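User: Can you help me understand a structure? I only have the sequence.
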Amino acid sequence: MTDTHSTTSGGGSRESIARSAADALDRARAEGTLAETPALAGFDGFLDSIIRVVDRRRSMAMEDFEPISTIPRFAGRVADAAGKSANIELVVDEVRFGGNGPLYAGALGRLGMPTTYIGAVGKDDESDELLPVYQPFAERCERVIPIAAPAYTDALEFDDGKIMLGKAANVQAVTWDRLVEPRRA
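Assistant: Let's start by predicting it. Here is the structure, written out as tokens:
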């Protein structure tokens, strides 16, 4: 667990630094200076599958199951498979966009900054087309330039936390050569 009251090298607590930054952003937005401050963000992009792990099914209906509620119970199920095989059923609740770059760029755009995002949010590595799931994020930005397909995360959600299984290979397609490659306007 992160200690929000620990001091940083500058002497303030993380909480006080975050509050100070939020206050400065509020002032800048009220003064209208954020709209005059362009931002560039990138470069990762992820599609996050939010998943529940099935403990036991109550019927054949896809949504009619009891999920494994805690990480220790899931760990026990996995440990019990040692030396044999196991089938652990996963149910995808939702697929949504993620990645530090898109989340950061979307937040800057929501604050009113003219934001350009460049990164892994495309339909595939050969296309300049935005993957449709990123459209709400793109609407908050001034410009979004897809240069690669997104990476993927399977987020196993439990009552006491989540386990994120990342498949980040597509982020490796974001290279200097891809950044400087001529793009369609």
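Now, to help you interpret it: Helices lie at 14-31, 71-80, 100-110, 135-138, 176-180. The chain has one domain: 36-180. Let me know which part you'd like to focus on.
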